[in-house]
Amino acid sequence: MIGILYRLDKELFYLINGSLGNPVFDLIMPWFRYMYFWFPLYAFLIAYIVYRYKKKSIYPLLMIALTVTVSDQLSGNFIKKSVQRIRPCNNEMMQEYVVKRVPCGSGFSFTSAHASNHFALAVIMIFLFAAQYRWVKWAAPLWAASVAFAQVYVGVHFPADVTVGAILGSLIAYGFLMLFKNSLTPDKTE
Predict the structure, then answer these.
(1) CB 181 within 8 A of CB 155
(2) How far is CA 187 from the centre of its chain?
(3) Rounded to the nearest 5 degrees, what angle is found at the Cα of 82, between the Cα atoms of 159 and 85?
């Protein structure tokens, strides 16, 4: 069964990384996975949380910081170092088939911290904002999925890496949301 899943993962990687290649994706996907590209969105989220939650903004901001830290450390340090899966762009047996669209990096592949962190943020955004802005329910996961897709498209992760990363980040965010849920109501005072 593991062999079948591994082959399916590789075939899906080749489809996304190779067959779906096009000039538009070649231009935008490297940017989608670049943290500083999303900095204006992160800054807006912080500013909006401070505006909406006022004096109580410390709670959602602390929750986000803890969630992303745990997600990043668990995915990037603990799981990657335990599993030690070679990135597709560094896999010697795949070298001639991988389209490298960004520098590969020397770290391991499983799980994707990019996917974990962005799905964690997406879950939090849904919880904090979807009641007021319904479009967040689909926009936040679509945004996180585009970051995860970009990781595979540029050749640095397998689809399973980003899928498990997405699940991991979502579960971590849910756990912190349950921990902080009584502190996450906007401040009604002016």
Answers:
(1) no
(2) 29
(3) 35
Residues 169/123, Cβ–Cβ less than 8 Å? yes
**Residue 101, SS3?**
coil
Within a 10 A sphere around the Cβ of 182, how many other Cβ atoms?
8
Alpha-carbon distance values, 150 to 51, 125, 126, 134 (Å): 32, 21, 22, 25
Q: In this structure, are residues 75 and 111 in contact, taking their beta carbons and an 8 Å threshold? A: yes
Extents of the domains making up the chain: 2-183
Is residue 68 within 8 A of residue 62, CB to CB? The reply is no
Structural tokens at position 113: 């911290």
Predicted structure pTM score? 0.91
Question: For residue 42, what are the CA distances in angstroms to 55, 118, 147?
Answer: 19, 11, 14
> Interior CA angle at 102 toward 101 and 103, to 5°?
135
Residue range 29-77, pLDDT digits in tens: 999 988 889 999 999 999 999 998 888 899 999 999 999 999 999 998 8
Fold for domain 2-183?
Vanadium-containing Chloroperoxidase; domain 2 (1.10.606)
